[in-house]
């Protein structure tokens, strides 16, 4: 969806902010939930271990279940979480997926998703079954026909580099079919996961599969690991020049290594991290002014924050805030 179709709107609607967020949540309650590529919003359940809980719930019309689970301890530096999702008999759902620093792996047992935007080449929505979405500096529009059954693993950028075993610039701002990346092993994994009797054994199978790939993975460059950690912990605030000086590298060499192992140059990674922090602040502090959030998150002013939100999500901050489903359904698109 081209950015010029999105209205700019009022950049600061603070008196109506709480009401707008409540209205968005109320409007979303009658809709099906769908698995989200970026991890935002509120979990249905987050488990230290899978246990026997399957997170089943029902809205007014559509049966659905969503389970979130942290991975094996050895995987936690590389994989933020797992999700298991199932929904059936609902209406079509279209969601917007803003830029994110996480690399989602979708393991699909059901109907394909359609993906539009800069991530899908060819102009117009493209069908994808099981796939990986590389880090990009724009957004995607993801649709489902109202029936979905899948798992998701959210990798850190360097976790994706190690476990996927490919230069990350090859999938930057792209959706890559899993079978093209992993060959027959992708379908074998899907078959085993599908045949498992529930979410708990599926999570355990995925743990074992990813641990095996990690054990045979090449390490990331220590300098890139250190640089990523510095950017991550500063929420994108550390200047790239300072980062390059700390490593004793030129900016050009740093950008080349970042693109190889994270998929984007450090300046783009920093923009995404800062954007994610601003989104978290908006969720945590619903009455805060956008000018205050801009200052807290390292933007030069509110206009800078608005430009970055439009670039990375296609929406102004209030628009993105209103469309974000507080129950964990992602950023809902008007039908």
Give the topology.
Blueprint: H1 17-28, E1 46-47, E2 56-58, E3 63-69, E4 79-87, E5 93-97, E6 103-108, E7 113-117, E8 126-128, E9 131-133, E10 140-144, E11 148-155, H2 157-165, E12 175-177, H3 178-182, H4 184-195, H5 199-215, H6 222-233, H7 240-247, H8 251-261, H9 266-284, H10 290-296, H11 302-313, H12 317-323, E13 324-325, E14 330-332
Parallel strand pairs: 1-3
Antiparallel strand pairs: 2-3, 3-4, 4-11, 5-10, 5-14, 6-9, 6-11, 7-8, 7-10, 9-12, 13-14
Can you offer a commentary on this structure?
With 335 residues, the protein is of the alpha+beta class. The protein has a domain at 33-218: Jelly Rolls (Sandwich), CATH 2.60.120. Helix content is 39%, strand content 19%. The protein is built from 12 helices and 14 strands. It has helices spanning 17-28, 157-165, 178-182, 184-195, 199-215, 222-233, 240-247, 251-261, 266-284, 290-296, 302-313, 317-323, and strands at residues 46-47, 56-58, 63-69, 79-87, 93-97, 103-108, 113-117, 126-128, 131-133, 140-144, 148-155, 175-177, 324-325, 330-332. The strands form 2 sheets. Strands 1, 2, 3, 4, 6, 9, 11 and 12 form an 8-stranded mixed β-sheet that branches. Strands 8-7-10-5-14-13 form a 6-stranded antiparallel β-sheet. Helix 1 packs parallel to helix 12 (317-323) and helix 4 runs antiparallel to helix 5. The chain is globular, with a radius of gyration of 19 Å.
């Amino acid at each position: 969806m081209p950015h010029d179709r999105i209205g700019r709107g009022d950049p600061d609607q603070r008196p109506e902010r709480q009401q707008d967020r409540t209205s968005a949540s109320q409007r979303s309650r009658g809709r099906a939930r769908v698995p989200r590529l970026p991890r935002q919003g509120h979990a249905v359940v987050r488990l230290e271990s899978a246990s026997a809980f399957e997170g089943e719930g029902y809205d007014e019309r559509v049966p659905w279940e969503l389970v979130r689970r942290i991975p094996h301890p050895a995987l936690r530096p590389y994989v933020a979480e797992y999700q298991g999702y199932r929904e059936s008999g609902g209406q079509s759902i279209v969601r917007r997926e803003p830029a994110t620093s996480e690399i989602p792996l979708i393991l699909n047992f059901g109907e394909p998703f359609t993906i539009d935007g800069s991530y899908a080449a060819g102009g117009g929505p493209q069908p994808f079954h099981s796939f990986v979405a590389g880090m990009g500096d724009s957004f995607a529009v993801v649709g489902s026909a109202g029936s979905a059954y899948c798992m998701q693993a959210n990798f850190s950028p360097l976790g994706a580099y190690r476990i996927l075993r490919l230069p990350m610039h090859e999938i930057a701002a792209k959706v890559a079919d899993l079978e093209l990346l992993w060959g027959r092993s992708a379908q074998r994994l899907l078959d085993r996961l599908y045949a498992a009797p529930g979410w708990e054994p599926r999570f355990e199978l995925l743990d074992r599969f990813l641990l095996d790939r990690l054990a045979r993975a090449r390490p990331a460059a220590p300098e890139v690991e250190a640089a990523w950690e510095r950017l991550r912990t500063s929420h994108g605030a550390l200047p790239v020049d300072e980062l390059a000086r700390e490593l004793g590298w030129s900016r050009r060499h740093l950008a080349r290594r970042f693109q190889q192992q994270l998929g984007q140059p450090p300046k783009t990674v920093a923009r995404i991290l800062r954007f994610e922090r601003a989104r978290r602040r908006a969720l945590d502090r619903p009455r805060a002014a956008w000018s205050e959030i801009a200052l807290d998150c390292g933007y030069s002013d509110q206009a800078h924050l608005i430009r970055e939100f439009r670039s990375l999500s296609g929406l102004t901050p209030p628009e993105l805030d209103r469309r974000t489903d507080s129950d964990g359904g992602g950023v809902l698109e008007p039908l």
